[in-house]
Amino acid sequence: MSKQMRIDFVSDVSCPWCVIGLKSLEQALDRVADEITVDMHFQPFELNPGMGPAGQDIVEHLTEKYGATPAQQEQSREMIRQRGAAVGFTFDMGLRGRIYNTFDAHRLLHWAEDQGRQQALKEKLFEAYFTQGENPGAHDVLLRAAGEVGLDVEAARQVLASNAYADEVRQLEYYWQRAGIHSVPAIIINQRHLINGGQPPEVFEQALRQIAQQDEELEQDEEPAA
Asked: If I label 31, which of 100, 115, 164, 174 is the partner at 20 to 30 A Cα–Cα?
């Protein structure tokens, strides 16, 4: 009998390791599909909540934020490109020249969950930013992505034109920060098991099997005696 598992995937659409983590997790879930049924929820996290609408040059940003030299950044980009290719995702680092504010993307993703298209939109926005070099906070990019995954574009336009879901997204961001999430991706399974980072598929697969077994044993221990 397939075990039901809830996964909260805390991430930002401007985080390359979140792409790698999601693609790796998807491969792992394919491998355990006969054993585990997943209810996936994408939770908001902003790497740069104070970023202005025009964004910032990525080399300048990484130098200021992490002290990384251009050579170190180039080495990191190549490692990310290779890790992405290994899980079937194309990073075109030459096109990604700026870091952008992603709050509106998180608002639209929150709305998309109610429409049953949250994961599809998340992946489309990853592609827009990391493969096509587009601004994932720009409304025209968000609306096109919404249409491409089958969402109602006019309804999406109304969400973006208003302040809809702003409070909900802020509350969720605060919730996860209070829960101790300060880097992403953070993958929370059944609301009690945490896996950090863009792990390889094999690591996720092993963790999923172990957690499913542990939680089954825990449920059995909690069952009242007849």
From this structure: 115
Q: H helices within the chain, ranges in order?
A: 16-31, 58-66, 70-86, 103-114, 118-126, 139-148, 153-161, 166-178, 201-222
pTM of the model: 0.94
Region of 106 (left: φ > 0; alpha: ψ -120 to 50; beta: rest) is: alpha
Burial 88-120 (b: 16+ CB within 10 A, else e): ebebebeebebbbbbbbbbbbbbbbbebebbbb
Pair 29, 36: CB distance under 8 Å? yes
CB under 8 Å to 135, separation ≥6 — which residues?
55, 98, 100, 129, 141
d(CA 154, CA 146): 10
For the chain, give the mean pLDDT.
95
Rounded (10°) angle between helices 103-114 and 166-178 = 100
Cα-Cα-Cα-Cα dihedral sign, residues 122, 126, 129, 131: negative
Burial of 190 (0-12, 13-18, 19+ CB in 10 A): middle
Using CA atoms, how far apart are residues 203 and 200, in angstroms rounded to an integer?
5
pLDDT in tens, 146-173: 999 999 999 999 999 999 999 999 999 9
- Which tokens hold the place of 73? 């950044």
